[in-house]
Amino acid sequence: MKKFIIILAAVLSATVFTAPAHSVMKKVGQTGLQFLKVDMAARAAAMGGAFSMVGDDASAMFYNPAGIGRMQHKFDFFSGRTLWIADINYTAAGIVKDFGEWGAVGVNAVYCDYGDIIGTQVASNKKGYERTGTVEVGAYAVGLSYAKSLTDMFTLGGSVKYTGQHLGSSVIVAGGTANENKMNALAFDFGTIFYPGFESLRVGMSINNFSADIKYFDEAFQLPLTFRIGAAMDVLDIFGKHDNPLLIAVDALHPRDYTERVHVGGEFLYKNMIALRAGYKFNYDEEGLTAGIGLKYALSGVYVKLDYSYGDLGVFETVSRFALGISLQ
Fold first, then answer.
1. Per-residue pLDDT tens for 188-212?
2. Which neighbouring-strand residues pair with 296?
């Protein structure tokens, strides 16, 4: 077991220190539907997105679907709101039901509100254009997830989701017909979680947004496929029994449209009621420091969770997220 821990630490450390060295090889502009990469859960965002081995409720479906196979409750509901840059807002929700030895099944959805966008077209006036009204734009994803613990040590899960985007209509040739800029596609997520037997340590992997090429007209593009390996552990376990866990998590990412990245996060839970969180995202142009707080309250078998996160986006200033969760025994 000691050898396993040493190897894992070496791999994650090597990823942390080598990621900046590869930053000159950025692969930007190669994928679409970028909203599929945005953190939808306030708890996850507060921990720097290091959540692939942490999530064990409905919010896990947006990171590693295997997480819902480790739920501590029979039913879980999640809803979140992300106040993104440029008046863009994301709304996410999910419901999971645990069917015991049959596994856990969940449904989830994300809707993107891009705000009001004014359409224009070429005109023979002084300005050279005229307004055509508000352009209807938006994006969405709806998914179905399933996970099951095959043993006490190993859990796997998967999701299939239907995603799409509408960017209004356009006229390519003056006087021609308007073309609707719409697309949709099926995408798949897959993940595993493994407990090697050392305290609360878990390790695993996830693959998100696997799909075929998609296109609007002639130009094809891909979804933001991302491969993750992660580890998480309550580091106070090594000191024996305790009431206030300190969870540390690390995710190493290999995205299709960028170089390798690393997410690191922590969560201190006091009296199973108040959670303090912080994290950092390495090898990002703007994103970096994150922080947040969570509150949990139990009443007659009903658990209510409220979460808030803050993220620093550099020149884009800050991003706030809010989330509500309800769990039933």
1. 999 999 999 999 999 999 999 999 8
2. 305
> Which H or E run includes 18?
helix 2-18
Task: Report phi then psi at 196, rounded to 5.
Answer: -75, -10
Residue 19 DSSP symbol: T
Among 24-33, 45-54, 273-282, whose mean pLDDT is lowest? Answer: 24-33
> Domain limits at 93?
2-328
Domain count, the chain: 1
Token readout for 137 is 């734009």
| CATH code of the domain containing 209 | 2.40.160.60
> Residue 68: phi, psi to the nearest 5?
-70, -15
pTM (2 d.p.): 0.85
| Beta pairing partners, 90 | 82, 112
> pLDDT digit string (tens) for 283-320?
988 889 999 999 999 888 899 999 999 998 878 788 99
Residue 283 has phi, psi (to 5 degrees) of 70, 40
